[in-house]
Amino acid sequence: MSYPDPLTDRLLTPENAALLIIDAQPTQVGSVVTIDPEKLVDNLTMLSRAAKLFGLPAIISRLNATGGGAAPTLGRITEVLPEVTEIERTSLNPWEDDCFLETVTAAGRRKLVFAGVWTEVSLSFAVLSAIQDGYEAYPVIDAVGGTSELAHAAALSRMSEAGANQTSCVQLICELQRDTGRTATIDEFLELLFEIKGPTPGAA
Questions:
Q1: CA pair distance 180, 55, nearest whole angstrom
Q2: Residues 6 or more apart from 140 whose CB is under 8 A from it?
Q3: Among 18, 43, 160, 176, which is least packed, fewest CB within 10 Å?
Q4: For the residues 20-28, what does the mean pLDDT come to?
Q5: Among 88, 86, 106, which Cα is nearest to 97's?
């Protein structure tokens, strides 16, 4: 079977997408109420593993909220992506940080997958700015979190109205694999997929 050009494909491919993880720091993650923080960390870790598996450029940014230095990104993420240099910034909108924007530009991908916190602040600001600059933005709805249900919902709605394409961990990983005949990645793909789905209902 023939496939579309992976660089111009409408769907996400390992050749046209990049993963952006924003403010996955202990305090921010711990303040999330729209998803269980432990599940959020699980999903962020799985996205990191998927980026590693499929060769997506990964960009990790952390917020220096006090001026005294930014808390590090969660170790479970950086252990998967040890080669990625974390970008520290003071701007609540990552897109307004020169180093962050330069790194996105250097990645050369027009489809940007967004994960992290908070949905209503840094995550949505970056998504809206990326769309304004002509990128396609894909917030992963089960790998983001907000400080209230209302704030989270409003941010998701605002991003969607601006043109963001909501996706999920399962959809993203399946979209990147696309075909179980792609044997180079199939074993780890299935491992990731089963971990995300969790145990089969009724299984012992």
A1: 17
A2: 43, 47, 113, 114, 115, 167, 168, 169, 172
A3: 160
A4: 96
A5: 88
Give pLDDT, residue 70. 75
Burial class (CB in 10 A: 0-12, 13-18, 19+), 161: exposed
Amino acid (1-letter code) at residue 111: K
Tokens of 1: 């079977």
Please name every residue paired with 111 in a beta bridge, in sequence order, or none if there are none: 17, 136
Angle at 88 between CA 82 and CA 90, to 5 degrees: 160
pLDDT at 134: 98
Look at residue 139 in the predicted model and tell me its pLDDT: 98
Give the strand order in the sheet containing 87-89: 87-89, 58-63, 17-22, 111-117, 136-145
Domains identified in the chain and CATH numbers: 17-196 (3.40.50.850)
**Bond before 118 cis per omega within 30 degrees:** yes
* Mean pLDDT value of segment 70-78: 92
What SS3 class is residue 22? strand
**Position 69 confidence tier, pLDDT thresholds 50, 70, 90:** confident
| pLDDT at residue 195 is higher than 70 | yes
**Count of residues in the chain:** 204
